Amino acid sequence: MPGKLKAKIVAGRHLPVMDRASDLTDAFVEVKFGNTTFKTDVYPKSLNPQWNSEWFKFEVDDEDLQDEPLQITVLDHDTYSANDAIGKVYIDIDPLLCSEAATVISGWLPIYDTIHGIRGEINVLVKVDLFNDLNRFRQSSCGVKFFCTTSIPRCYRAIMVHGFVEELVVNEDPEYQWIDRIRTPRASNEARQRLIFLMSGELQRKIGLKVLEMGGNAVVGYLQCFDLEGESGLVVRAIGTACTLEKISTFPATATHPSNSSPSKDMKEPVFGEEAPGVPLSSGPPTPLRAQTFSSFSPSKSYSRQSSSSDTELSLTPKTGMGSGGSAGKDAGPLKALLKQQTQSALEQREYPFFTLTVFPPGFLLHVGGVVSARSVKLLDRIHNPDEPETRDAWWEEIRQEIKSHAKSLGCHAVVGYSESTSICEEVCILSASGTAAILSSRFMQDGPLDTELRFEEVVSPGCGFCHIPYDELNIPFPAQLTYCYCCRRYKVPDVLFTTIDLPTEASVTGKGCLIQARLCRTKKKAQGEVNATAISNLLPFLEYELHTQLMNKLKLRGMNALFGLRIQISVGETMLLGLASATGVYLTALPSPGGIQIVGKTPSDITYEQHISNMQKKINDTITKNKELYEINPPEVVEEIIGSPIPEPRQRSRLFRSHSESSDDVSEIDLSHGKKDAFVLEIDDTDAVEDIHALLTDSPTPAGFYSCNTEIMPGIQNWTSAIQMFTSVRVFRLNANLTNQGLNKIFSDLCENLLKSLYFKLRSMVPCCLCHLNFTVAIPEDELIQVAVTAVALSFDKEQTLENGKQSGEKTPIKAITENDEQLQFNLELNAETSSSSISPKGLSEVGSHPSARDRCSSWIEQLKLKAHTIRRGSVKTTSSMEKASPLPEGRSRSLRSNRSYSGSSVAVVKMTPLSFIPGAKIIKYLGIINMFFIRETSSLREEGGVSGFLHTFIAEVFAMVRAHVAALGGNAVVSYSMKECVFMENPNKNQAQCLINVSGDAVIFVRESELELTSVQPQSATTQTSNGGEGT
Amino acid sequence: MSVELDVFVGNTTIMDKEVYQLWLNGYTVNDAVKVRIEGGVMEECEASAEVLLSDTMDQYRTFQMCERLLHHPAKLANQLLFQIPPDRQAMLIERYYAFDDSFVREVLGKKLSKGTKKDLDDVSIKTGIMLKSCRRQFDNFKRVFKVVEELKGPLVENIRQHFLLPDPLARDYAAIVFFANNRFETGKKKLQYLTFQDFAFCAGQLINNWTVGAVDNMMEDMDVDLDKEFLQDLKDLKILITDKDLLDQHKSLVCTALRGKTNVFNEMEANFKNLSRGLVNIAAKLINAKDVRDFFIDLVEKFIEPCRSDKLTSIDVNLYLTHYTNSAHILDTFKHHTVWTRYMGVIKSCILRMYHD
């Protein structure tokens, strides 16, 4: 079914001078969509033309609407010679195709030229009239919402999480076509930009189709990447998590929460009797949410949900009844097993039980096993038939299968925080995938056996549940040291936990976290083809092993016991491999306190040597002590005394699984554990080890007032101010030839450290502040060049961890005390459970105990950042709903926002950008659609543009400007979950040339400052006195 | 081993005021780094020289990229490339257009031409202001001059609107433009004791009273040129010195008024005709462009110096000029009261301002 696309060209401003004689320009505009082109009149002799054109109308298929961008070209009319192009604007129509996103694109957009950069701006109006599509066999997927955000978007609730969607599109790279020899760089760049726009549109449409097939209406955690394979082509691939989302209605009458939508929840209610007497939660809206959503998605419901949508179907039948399911832990053995089997059956029907989410709705993530990753080295060959991208698909399939099997061996049925990446050098390509093996609740899965499952889910205490091992302790897949959970004392936990997800909001954490990086360089010989691929795959295991060791040591050095947001990037160059692992270290209260690091020398005969060692040991111990102070890690030791020493368990090491396969199919699995050795003993047997320890100690601490993490938020800091500063920093370092591994390591490590130091210095005015979502990307653009790019956001916070107590009722405890408080409560409860209750199920008690503290925390959070409330744990249901009440009239607000802006005329609207999924101190009231932009910039006058730095600086600033302008045109005032996914920089200083490709993405949103919402939020708060509503009115 | 490329781009453009000032002052990156190290920013923020260098280079690059926009400050507000908060924009503009009094004193009243620009190295040596900074200031003068030259309406208002400058700075620029347009001589040795602010004050007086805009502010003519008609009329004042009776009458009126009110009465009496001739001659000659240029030197030579050699205090001068002006109105045969008031008002305030050491 067709849709009608309408565009109107209003005016231009700040146009460049195209006619030297008059110092003016005779500009006109070509508007092109698909194969149809319209032109405006020439507006003679002006740098600020007013075209005020008619509405240009395009009648097109919605399939094309999804694939094609609207292409606007501004030209200078020339009577005698060919018209000169001033620049272009590509407009992604997609946000207009979804009824819940933007309705019009209107505003000043930069006119971009790949050679000259931004050349003035053009004011356009774009609308789409879409007719309803009821065609079963349609190729379009209009209406499916896309989110880059890797959590459930802030103003939606997840009704269902369907699972993994992936798609891949290939084409020839225009830059490598024969025609490129004769056409201008501009034409070639534009062909490339346009092609990638088309390919991403197509990709999105195809993913959307899969989502519809699965019965979903949205893709969350949408991650799209380009592989510039050079001669062999251009691959655009994307992964995401299909969901059924429902907009949270912000009116109190309909305010509900996913967790009280299930009937079985009510059975549990009486447990809370003392606190919410006589008012069961079900008194809310009687309509079960599930039913609602189904009806609203009736068109797609007819499709079979059993997704086998991937182009390349696997014959692999999922094995049911995994081994670990049968023999679970002693405590809740049968329950756990049952639960596991049920969710498993739900998950195993999926081809890949993968989730790109890193933050989960409350109660969704039950247990975390550990990081699973897989890599494979491939030799690229020409893609012969772009319509059948079989090889690429097959490659990824291999890797995904591997990941899946790793997860299984960890006793997990799902992989969360899943991502995929590549690194290409000449014809060698490393494909990587990683994620966190986990057990999920079937609450959000369509065929989950709801009634039975929920009962067992209550077992898990929210602060520590996810740490409990999912695998069978008698049949541990790797050597592990298990202890009883330091929170609930009931289940086993590992001594360290590595994950790729964000820290769950309900997790109890001691102290603050920090960014931990492992950096490694390995030289390799120059080689070609198969030999090269083999060499690389031989090196990979060592690289990963060392990265892992470094991570572990650095974690210990900071006195922490868990890593979140782990991202290991391996980059391949002609003569070296680079490995960079970044993660946020924290001290999970549930996990045992990490032991120190012990240094052991191999040749104890020499006295000076021993002295040297003891010196180093002292230094290390001092550092650990200092770090513990710095990050405020002082775990409650009382607990330990009372409980007694944990049951001795076999010593364990890591849970980082991975393997490599080269072009051939052999898949080798390497156990990363350090054998039977004590995990924390560093043996100094050669100079290497000494170097390693030095490297350990040279990591300079963050300057006072700064914290850093690569996750969304920093545990232990809550009172963010509204000051945010997103930034991108890029450095390229030239190496000398003939460096040793050690030398390289040092240089690489210094490069990263110095970059961080520079960032701290730059942002010193924001202190106290935290650099969040620090995302490092490394590349080897050329031999002897290392490129490091960082995108992050600096958030400043109030130093005093106190609350504005004004509106709070007396029962509230200041936030500072909460962590300890939590501890206390749980501890007390523990005693209760052990002494008094033999008849009552301990699980029930634990629920009661955790509740008040949960509420406390919750209420303070709401005071602080209301927008976060819906991620808070189960116990806080009532509070959450109050928050929803507090948020008023999003629609009206957005409309008024827009009209305000259009009045304001020339002054530029401020658009915030952040890699986080939220904006501190503000509430996101509307998602306007995904921003996915790709730009190429080229210059042949590098020196004149200020050298490479000047060139790239301008380009990045231009990209920011274009993102902001497009968001503003959609009616938004911020981009969340922003990321720069590609920054490929190439230079040729001798020829005075450089070229750069940048790909950015994010979600355009409208947010409203909480201070503006305050007026309306007062009301529900004053209504709190009614105890019948329980904890509602915080 | 070297850093080949090093950039930092913030969504909100980060600009350090201190570095901005160093850049404006014409420091090279390396010199700026030295100054910053001496300033102690390193200890304060636990930074190394390397970090400081990287930051300084980055800031310099940002400023260079912004400079284009600063040439048209109105563009800064509605450009899309840099997201700069409004208060920051105002700071950037104000500091970019700020100038050194010692520099402006050197070029005040000179033609803002290429020739003058070439001589800037001498100015730089003389004033100790870096050449780069001199050039920036000179180019600012020239840019403002070019834009305002052709505009209708009040000069100060035009400058404020086009360059988004705060009021005092806009007034200073108006003075600079006015001086450059009329090519007032300010460089003579005898005028060296006068500061830029003295001249700026006088310029303000002239702009407000002697231009076309002054009488008829919404007229099509501009503020930058003196009112030709008025200058023509000034010739009529000559009667005050050519008519012997009138001159004597004027003198006796002034002397009557002054007697007993000052210690230097005798000197004033003795010098009356001389001083009066001086002032009226200046008025009569102003119709010639050449004599307009010498306006200030004439004031000094014909009035201020004689007064000073007679040891008049500025109170004396004030007294004298007040009575001198007022007495003329009492003269029977003197008809040009409006012109006289318009002329003497400015002359009086200019002289009083200029009457210092």
TrEMBL record, chain A:
Segments forming domain C2: 1-109
Alphabetical list of InterPro entries matching this protein: C2_C2CD5 (IPR037785), C2_dom (IPR000008), C2_domain_sf (IPR035892), C2CD5 (IPR038983), C2CD5_C (IPR057815), C2CD5_YbjQ-like_dom (IPR056430), C2CD5_YbjQ-rel_dom (IPR056431)
Stretches with biased composition (Polar residues): 253-264
Domain of life where this protein originates: Eukaryota
Biological-process GO terms, alphabetical: insulin receptor signaling pathway; intracellular protein transmembrane transport; positive regulation of D-glucose transmembrane transport; positive regulation of protein targeting to membrane; positive regulation of vesicle fusion; protein localization to plasma membrane
Annotated Low complexity bias: 295-310
One annotated GO molecular function: calcium-dependent phospholipid binding
Segments of this protein annotated with the region Disordered: 253-333, 834-854, 873-900
Subcellular location: Cell membrane; Cell projection, Ruffle; Cytoplasm, Cell cortex; Cytoplasmic vesicle membrane
Keyword Transport: yes
Pfam families xrefs: C2 (PF00168), YbjQ_2 (PF23025), YbjQ_3 (PF23028), YbjQ_4 (PF23128)
Keyword Protein transport: yes
SUPFAM superfamilies for the chain: C2 domain (Calcium/lipid-binding domain, CaLB)
Gene Ontology cellular-component annotations: cell cortex; cytoplasmic vesicle membrane; plasma membrane; ruffle
Record-given protein name: C2 domain-containing protein 5
Organism whose genome encodes this protein: Carassius auratus
Underlying gene: LOC113079192
From TrEMBL, chain B:
GO CC terms: nucleus
Domain of life of the organism encoding this protein: Eukaryota
One example GO MF annotation: fibroblast growth factor binding
GO process terms (BP): platelet aggregation
PANTHER family named among the record's database cross-references: ACIDIC FIBROBLAST GROWTH FACTOR INTRACELLULAR BINDING PROTEIN (PTHR13223), ACIDIC FIBROBLAST GROWTH FACTOR INTRACELLULAR-BINDING PROTEIN (PTHR13223:SF2)
Name listed for the protein in its UniProt record: Acidic fibroblast growth factor intracellular-binding protein B-like
Organism: Carassius auratus
Gene: LOC113057935
